[in-house]
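INTERNAL AUDIT FORM
Audit reference: QA-55
Scope: verify that the stored structure record matches its stored sequence.
Auditor: D.O.
Record contents follow.
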Amino acid sequence: MSLEELTRETLRDEEYDRDVSVSILEGLMLDIYLPVLDSTGAIETDAGYNRIGPGEHHEAYLQMAEALDEVYEQHFGGV
């Protein structure tokens, strides 16, 4: 998927803050999220982020993220 597709899908997520604009979200992804995920092997990208796909450690990253979500929900979900 492309950065544009990823941004569009993120903004469709019901839990995502609807006040964030597309340009702000794209900036956050380009400056922070995508470089970190790419460097850890969770995703694989090309130089211009025109193609974003699963990386070598994608499954492990998803398992960790789901476990963190579960722990967070147990501790803070009722707040």
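Auditor finding: record pair retrieved intact. The mean pLDDT is 85.
Action required: none
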